[in-house]
Amino acid sequence: MNTVLLTGGAGYIGSHISRELLKEDYNVIIVDDLSSGRKDFIPSGVEFFEGDFSDTRILEKINSENKPDVVMHMAANISVEESMKNPSLYLQTNLYKSMELLNFMVKKKIRNVVFSSTGMVYSNPKKFPITEEEKTMPSNAYGMTKLMFENALEYYRNMHGINFFSLRYFNASGADKSGLIGECHKPETHLIPLVLDVALGRRKEIKIYGTDYDTKDGTCMRDYIHVLDIAKAHIICSSALINGKKGGFYNVGSGSGHTVREIIEVCREVTGHKIPEAIAPRREGDPPIMVTSHDKISREFGWKPENSDINNIIKTAWEWHKKSN
Q1: Mean pLDDT of the chain, nearest integer
Q2: Is 142 annotated in the active site?
């Protein structure tokens, strides 16, 4: 049985990955400080350490008891807007602490890591969907810190033999089919849960940040990928590393985009609620369109976005949100 150390495993994406790993008979160890994750999202059968993912005391204990075959590094600060207001926080978590984790892996000869990156590492491309050959030049501090760690991974592969997959995706969305876990951030910043909160009466209206972008309806367009498809990509890459692959940079996306107004309209259809909206100014760092190709990972590893139809994404998210607190 192979062991995976999952940082940020009590968070939205990490909790879905942990359940899928258990289905594939992995031994799963989670480290999470619960600053944004939820303890009730951690499934039974998983060993859990509450604390910072860069805490060497925790990492030493884990390694001495059950050395990981793969580290899945999910823990991060993730808000584009916050990153532009407080870039030092993002450097501290997404780069400096991540480097401490990477240095620990070198010290203990843990050779495999799957990194949760972002499509925000790309610049402002004119051609869509975005391929891995697109120039990387982030327009916000969040994307920049992710790119800086990606660069570190490449150096560490060359210098220390650390093999890695860096998975670049945009808007993780949807929820587990069981309805037991779903998207939940503190504070919530992602579009679909915010819109569904309006439908549930938890918010008065949904704000649309900018209506003058060069898109079909003037609002930002994004690639929405179901969290279960993301989980499957992580597991495929974990298996590839265990079997000797060196990895690299891979986009994980649906290959199609939806605007803010389109998402709101689908949410209206799924929920049966009117969902009032309000227009707000553009947010700094928001590119107009971000849609990514999945051709490379599909061609090389057979991964496909099987759950990422936008209606399925919002239906599964709605089932979770109706039950959530």
Answers
A1: 95
A2: yes
